[in-house]
């Protein structure tokens, strides 16, 4: 097994090599994203989301802005949920402006994880947003990095998209569930999803590499969530050690049936 979730760390300083932050430097974690990152409205109710674990294990403060259902921009893929550019970033900036949140750029790490709701059902996959493609959606997420940089943010972890084609909603052997009960060709959805996640991830990587020289003093790490989830799917015993039988093709009870 070859597994390296951190794909690259790039620094913008002239002549800088790929040096990231130092141990102990980070004291504050600011998170942006969708339900994968939301710490309140989470899928597996009653459990802790990854930002809580991260903050607890690292001994740092958590400032969570991710919201379930979020897309990058509701101007691109309209959904009835708060979005990154119109809601999450403005809320963060308002808290900075009124000093209810006080952060030092060199001690703060920003995580950004979007795309799942933008490209999925009731969005790009089902043609709900004419004229919008993976290109605009990916550029939008990168725009969020730029906006945060302009407001003073310097240290970023950009998390890429997981292999959504393996999830219950988009798998070839899917079944009606609480996210989609209408007829569809599950084989085609799964094939499209694989194309989409791979394309967005490569676009984001290239766009970030093009962006970094324009952001002096910034550090951006690309966290390869895609490989992490693929590896969990392929080798669940390396990650899951509870008492229930290992199962990577099912979901939390809430999404299992249309009636839930
Ligand atoms: C996770 O962290 C947030 C923000 O600090 C907090 O509101 C929430 O209660 C925490 N959740 C758990 C399960 O610890
Ligand atoms: C979204 O559209 C509204 C209305 O046109 C506009 O005011 C807003 O600035 C747009 N948001 C972004 C992030 O471009
Ligand atoms: C600061 O702004 C945030 C976000 O708009 C708001 O929720 C909070 O109540 C404000 N706090 C103060 C002290 O004004
Ligand atoms: C579903 O799509 C696959 C791939 O395009 C195709 O081979 C298959 O015949 C389709 N199934 C139905 C029932 O149309
Ligand atoms: C699972 O792994 C964690 C972390 O290594 C350990 O603390 C826990 O005891 C393990 N649980 C079981 C049931 O083996
Ligand atoms: C995983 O769970 C689903 C739903 O309960 C079940 O249909 C499937 O057979 C399980 N797979 C394994 C490998 O146990």
Automatic annotation (TrEMBL):
Keywords: Signal. It comes from the Eukaryota. Transmembrane segments: none annotated. It holds the Pfam family Lipase_GDSL. Residues 1-18 form the signal peptide. InterPro entries: GDSL, SGNH_hydro_sf. SUPFAM superfamilies: SGNH hydrolase. The keyword Signal applies. One of its GO terms (molecular function) is hydrolase activity, acting on ester bonds. This is Carbohydrate esterase family 16 protein. It comes from Mycena pura.
């Amino acid at each position: 097994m070859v597994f390296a979730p951190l794909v690259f760390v790039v620094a913008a300083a002239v002549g800088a090599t790929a040096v990231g932050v130092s141990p102990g430097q980070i004291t504050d974690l600011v998170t942006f994203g969708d339900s994968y990152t939301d710490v309140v409205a989470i899928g597996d109710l009653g459990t802790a989301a990854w930002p809580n674990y991260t903050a607890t294990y690292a001994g740092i403060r958590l400032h969570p802005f991710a919201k379930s259902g979020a897309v990058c921009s509701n101007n691109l893929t309209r959904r009835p949920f708060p979005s990154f550019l119109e809601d999450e970033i403005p809320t963060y900036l308002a808290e900075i402006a009124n000093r209810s949140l006080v952060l030092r750029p060199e001690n703060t790490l920003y995580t950004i994880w979007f795309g799942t709701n933008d490209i999925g059902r009731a969005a790009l996959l089902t043609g709900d947003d004419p004229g919008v493609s993976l290109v605009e959606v990916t550029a939008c997420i990168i725009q969020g990095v730029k906006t945060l940089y302009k407001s003073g943010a310097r240290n970023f972890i950009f998390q890429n998209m997981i292999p959504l084609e393996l999830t219950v909603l988009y798998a070839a052997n899917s079944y009606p569930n609480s996210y989609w009960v209408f007829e569809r060709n599950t084989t085609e959805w799964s094939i499209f999803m694989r194309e989409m996640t791979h394309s967005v991830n490569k676009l984001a990587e290239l766009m970030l590499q093009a962006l970094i020289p324009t952001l002096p003093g910034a550090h951006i790490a690309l966290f390869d969530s895609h490989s992490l989830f693929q590896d969990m799917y392929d080798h669940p015993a390396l990650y899951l050690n509870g008492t229930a039988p290992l199962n990577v093709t099912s979901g939390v009870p809430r999404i299992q049936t249309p009636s839930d």
